[in-house]
Amino acid sequence: MFRLRITFFRVFGIIAICFISSGLHAQVQKENFSNDDESIEPISQAIKDQIENIISQLTLEEKVSLCHAQSKFSTKGIERLGIPEIWMSDGPHGVRAEINWDDWGYAKWTNDSITGFPALTCLAATFHPELSEQYGFSIGEEARYRKKDVLLAPGVNIYRTPLNGRNFEYMGEDPFLASVMAVPYIKGVQKNGVAACIKHYALNNQEVWRNEINVEVSDRALYEIYLPAFKAAVTEGHVWSVMGAYNKFRGQHCCHNELLLNKILKTDWNFDGVVITDWGGAHDTWESALFGLDIEMGTGTDGLGTSKVSHYEHYYLARPFLELLKSGEIDESIVDDKVRRILRLMYRTNLNPNRPLGNKNTIEHHQVAQKVAEEGMVLLKNKDAFFPIKDDKQLTIAVIGENATRPMTIGGGSSELKVQFEISPLEGLKKRYKNATIIHTMGYASGPSVYDKVMPSNLNADSLKTEAINVAKKADLVLFFGGLNKSHLQDCENGDRKSYHLPFGQDDLINDILKVNKNVGVFLISGNAVAMPWIDEVKGIFQTWYLGSMTGYAIANIISGDVNPSGKLPFTFPVKLVDNGAHYYGELSYPGDGINEYYKDDILVGYRWHETKNIKPQFSFGYGLSYTSFNISAAKTDKKLYDFKDTIKLSCNVTNTGLKDGSEVVQVYIGKPNSKVLRAVKELKGFKKVNLKTKETKTVEISIDVNTLAFYDESISDWNVEKGNYIVYVGNASNQIDQTIEIQVTQ
Ligand code: BGC
Fold first, then answer.
1. Interval 547-569 mean pLDDT
2. Nearest protein Cα to ligand 1, atom 4
């Protein structure tokens, strides 16, 4: 019924808008709405005129009604003018199930199950932008099929601490990698006539005190580390909407932050789309009206909040806003700007008569999900060529650990999914290994995932452990599936981890297993780094992420060697927590004192910190092994002297020196010795993933604009490219450099 109403409204809406535009529509639609990239921006003059025409017909009440929610995930339309409702949905790695109108309960529809794609840490670990485009396109198709106009994704907050409960939703610690991976995702989504919504803008780098913590950070760190992925989303990805963050920045909530929204986003970057609150992120009518917010969602957590009657009318951008407009205290041009942006969003999405119809749970989507999973998994250790493991009749494999069977699309908060299916690692292994004997036991138990609550398991930990040791004794080798999960205080919204160690007694369990079986391979299913006190004793380690629907198939393909691992870490694994820059400076640096938090690590986030301070990580950013080996050689730049406007053209040869086909990621970092300001020893400036048959050599070319070597100069409040010598580092991890080249920037 509900769905029918929306559909009718949309059809009616399109007809009515066509009517308003008095025939213009037919003429302009082809050139304005074709799905290729170039046509996305800018919006044509004809549509601009239509938008002004509509604004001129709207009453103040109608204008304001467009600026806030009417339900948990939708905004009102205006029936008399055929202006449609806007429907939004989470989330970053799958389209969330339908939520009730007024509360967070699931609506229990029977047609809303979808494909679970790998979480974004995995996507980032592929270092494969084309795959990100396919991912974005596929998830966008699913959103479109589910009649969503805005997909609340991708998330690009920077990985600052391994404790952040939402790191799994983001693209790692490096602003360049996150930018390069986010842009094609956005383009892919938007080809479906569905708006991507880059989030959470900005500095939402922890979940502890997320609603109130005030982040104090230097301009340099802001511009160099925390903003670039958002900027790329806007200026290169042409994203149609942006979600504000919950936290404060320099004393003002990010959802109505004058500097972030009015100045940087809308003025400096020319963003012409819509700013949406994070759910409940608005706190003030004046600021919401004046400081860049366009649509207020989620105020009042149960959809009731301050009043049971017409709750949504009490939103900051609802009646209180209307009153200030009516009294003339706020000028009508303020609401007109918001409405103009909202109508623009509609013309790009639900008023675009040519947008495709979408699709869900297709074979293509499953293939994309599996490919991302396979290309994102990172092989961290492989002693004695422990992996790949042959499917041998003589072999008994013990699969131990709760994560071998635990569904990971459940839990985590707003990114929780209702998937059509999720193949567990155990299921995948059983399908792939027809000859070997697989024995399985849980080993440890964590309890169910309940939002905002830790629910311990009622299973007996000692019995589970004893059973695991017995199973391990009987096997030739053990595959341990552990890590974190999507429960409160693990990888989950609205809370950070309490410790860097593995939870649920896993460290002890692994140590005890090692006493009876030395052939242990560990699979860390998580979106975060963890401590590994057993690292020297185990044979192999995979960082396995949250892989979505195709988890088990992808894992089995990697273990068996049907697929050669090629993922690279999108963030550093410190040995211990204080080795991480945010933690090094103590509690005021993370998590703050409950009121303020000072990013004392400044620009030295992740590998920038480890490299500059000479702190050896457990595993570095960009690191990842393969079942074959590669050699990078003959790296050279096209010139030695460059001016500011030049592009550095770098080339090198990559040879697959091993016995298996595989892929390597060539990474180019650049550093500025003797800079007049503190700079990281090196920063990622380019990368390319290359596929090589055994013994094959390919020449890789990477272009880097000299202006990307700039630092943000606080003395002039602008970017500044220093003249002088730079070092170009070419390698396959931030701390594995095969060759360095010196270049000079002359003017
Ligand atoms: C999250 C957002 C999400 C929104 C709607 C918020 O709690 O921070 O990422 O899109 O809820 O579910």
1. 98
2. 279
Identify whether the C-beta of residue 300 lies closer than 8 Å to the C-beta of residue 280.
yes
DSSP 8-state secondary structure symbol assigned to residue 228: H
Instruction: Dump pLDDT digits (tens) for 371-397.
Output: 999 999 999 999 999 999 999 999 999
> Which of 593, 537, 528, 523 shows the shortest CA–CA distance to 565?
523
- What does the alpha-carbon distance between residue 165 and residue 490 come to, in Å, rounded to a whole number? 6
Cα–Cα dist 367/111, whole Å? 21
What confidence tier does 88 reach under pLDDT thresholds 50, 70, 90?
very high
Q: Evaluate: CB of 279 within 6 angstroms of ligand 1.
A: yes
666-689 residue pLDDT tens? 999 999 999 999 999 999 999 999
3 state SS of 490: coil
Cis previous bond, 385, omega within 30: no
Residue 42's pLDDT is what? 67
pTM for the model: 0.94
Which residue out of 90, 174, 278, 579 is catalytically annotated?
278
152 lines ligand 1 (CB under 6 A): yes
Residue 43 pLDDT: 87
Q: Residue 278 Cα, ligand 1 centroid: separation in angstroms?
A: 6
The verdict on the CB of residue 427 being under 6 Å from ligand 1 is no
Cα distances (angstroms) measured from residue 435 to each of 429, 430, 701:
11, 10, 44
Do residues 649 and 638 touch, judged by C-beta distance below 8 A?
yes
- Of 201, 243, 279, the residue with max ligand 1 atoms within 8 A of its CB, to mutate for a pocket test, comes to 279
Closest C-alpha to 273, from 196, 332, 204, 350: 196
CB of 157 closer than 6 angstroms to any ligand 1 atom: no
- Beta strands in 417-560, from DSSP E residues, in sequence order: 437-441, 449-450, 453-454, 477-483, 520-525, 540-543
Separation between Cα atoms, residue 576 and residue 278, nearest integer Å: 33
Q: Which amino acid is at 387?
A: F
Burial string for 133-155 (b: 16+ CB within 10 Å, else e) reads bbbbbbbbbbbbbbbbbbbbbbb
Nearest alpha-carbon partner for 95 in 109, 116, 111, 121? 116
Q: Which atom of ligand 1 is nearest to the CA of 73?
A: 5
Q: What is the mean pLDDT of residues 608-619?
A: 98
CA of 169, closest atom in ligand 1: 9
* Overall residue count recorded for the chain in this entry: 747
Q: Is 278 a catalytic residue?
A: yes
Nearest CA to ligand 1 atom 11: 279
Q: Please give the distance, rounded to the nearest whole angstrom, from the Cα atom of residue 715 to the centre of ligand 1.
A: 37
Cα–Cα dist 260/270, whole Å: 12
- pLDDT tens digit string along 414-439? 999 999 999 999 999 999 999 999 99
Residue nearest to atom 6 of ligand 1 (CA): 279
pLDDT, tens digit, 9 for 90 and up, residues 427-476:
999 999 999 999 999 999 999 999 999 999 999 999 999 999 999 999 99
